[in-house]
Amino acid sequence: MITNPRIQGIGMTSRRTRERMINRLLEQGITEHKILDVMRDTPRHIFVDDALASRAYEDTALPIGHNQTISQPYIVAKMTELLLQEKPNMGKVLEIGTGCGYQTAILAQLVGHVYSVERILPLQKKAIQHLQDLRIRNISFQHSDGGWGWSKNAPYDGILVSAAPTEIPEALLEQLAVGGVMLIPVGRAGQQELRRITHTDSGYQVEVLEPVSFVPFLSGGVS
User: Fold this and answer.
1) Is 71 in the active site?
2) Cα 88 from Cα 111, distance rounded (Å)
3) Which one of 14, 54, 71, 202 is the catalytic residue?
């Protein structure tokens, strides 16, 4: 059991505040209780700077440095729910964009193993520390351009992308197992849509789900 007071939270980072977040997610239509339970038990406030910790359970994206954000709780819950909807017991999931590690933490508690790629090394280092603090160990990390995916461990049962390209990277499609599902935002700022792609025996089935707003998908690594 983790007894670190910072992780447990107090006041605006307490379990009672998390419970309000969960009630809001229920009102917003998130129905998968496994996901809600994981989000209730995962301290979102440790993934943001201390100055923003009191806002961690608001339904809003927050800055994490390097022009990146932690996604709002609804988007984390919704993308996770959509990814696992048809295949709730996924073994291997590729995450593109570790960011602060919050989405990584939620996924890792619901699937067999997460392979997480991040292009910004300082963010990746912070995320690794957060996840070690939570004793979540079924995650492998790579500092790399997300557009390349992580072919060494392919194919993946699921792929979740946390930044929006204007077109879906071909390498990611190639690394998705037959029967696998990818959740990815696509489009330019102000015109993005969330898509779910299923790799079938005959090709790729694409569903356009809802408008979203993500940081742009950029190439190249940052040390």
Assistant:
1) yes
2) 8
3) 71
